[in-house]
Amino acid sequence: MTRSRRAAIWTWSVFGGVAVTLLAVAASLGATVYQQQVGEALTLALLQSLAVLLVPWLPRWAVGIVAVAAVSGMYAGSATPDAPWPVPVATLLALLVVFGVASVHGRWIISSAAAAGVGLTAVGLTAGAGGELPAGSVISNLIVTVVLSGIAIGVGTLIRSIRTARGALAEARELTELELAKRQIAEERTRIAREMHDVVAHGMSVIQVQAASARYRYPELRPEVADEFDELAATARVALGEMRALLGVLRADDDAEHAPQPSLAELPELAARSRAALEDQLPVALRTRMDPVCQLAVYRVVQESLGNAARHAPGAAASVTLTGHSEPRSGGPGSARVTIRNASPSASAVAAAPAADPSGHGIRGMRERVGALGGSLAAGPTPDGGFQVVALVPIIPDAPGAGHPPAPEEFPA
Hints:
- The protein has 13 helices and five strands.
- The chain has helices spanning about 5-30, 40-55, 60-75, 90-105, 110-130, 135-215, 225-250, 255, 265-275, 285-290, 290-310, 345-350, 360-370, and strands spanning about 275-280, 320-325, 330-340, 375-380, 385-395.
- It has a five-stranded mixed sheet with strand order 1-2-3-5-4, with helices on one face.
- The longest helix has about 80 residues, at about 135-215.
- Keywords: ATP-binding, Kinase, Membrane, Nucleotide-binding, Phosphoprotein, Transferase, Transmembrane, Transmembrane helix, Two-component regulatory system.
- Its EC number is 2.7.13.3.
- InterPro entries: HATPase_C_sf, Sensor_HK_TwoCompSys, Sig_transdc_His_kin_sub3_dim/P.
- One of its GO terms (molecular function) is kinase activity.
């Protein structure tokens, strides 16, 4: 049971009990002490109980109903020296409950107006009684009615003011905590950006400069080796550009937030730098509708997979296949399927290459990136000794109908 439902049940129970009690007391007193007709006494008691029952949810209606019931009870009853008059005790209790709760809900003006109307009616009836009752008891009844009604309205208004102040204080505290959290996040992002700049960006700059100048520093290099250094320098320049954009985002640079991100249009250049065959079969209709965030995810998956292939399978042939399909049955916009596959490397290439670090988190990071968009990714060895990565990326983030790639053991030979 939820908290709101428990509160509603508790409210119904409390006010329902008060309403039933007032019904019994007011009906019996009206018919016996104040000489009202049984039907009149029961009807007036029902109106007062109904007002008490409705005041937590319909305070305006409750105030109007209890005021009408109180005035009608004064006219219907007979003055008697044996009981309080002109406002009976049961009626006074109903007035106090309704006026107080209505004031808690911000209806203190209408409650004050109703209290004034009941008081003026009581004064008029007292003046018309012609001195049949002792003046002291009547005046005491009127004073008690006015004073207690004012106290009920004042207490209800005070409770509402305290609630409003507490709500404003809680909101201010929440905003303060939120601003503090934002500041801490900004400081942490700045620290990460500083560390990345000092370590990664500096190392990439050295690699780019050395690779770009190798052709001139070593004139005896063979043309194919010099071309290899040029490609290495180009790759380092692209990585530096992306690194600067990422550093700008981490430093909360407004211009960097809008910096262009890699998309499907950069896939041919990425494949060419990695010397991988690219087969792009993604329909134009899906390509034009594909969200930029999803395009970036495809690019990063291809980039990371080709990088893994270069590290773990040096010299092996690699291929990238991009396809797509729509989902007319499920109503989804469809998804793009990207497959990166490399063949088994030769033993001589593996022996000549430096040992790759197996402690990376590339596949895990790709799976998290694709999964955050509502897609899926699988990676595993192929029967021919190579390796394959299959990712399904939705055209629109969290779009239905993306499906699931085959498990690694289901990869075709």
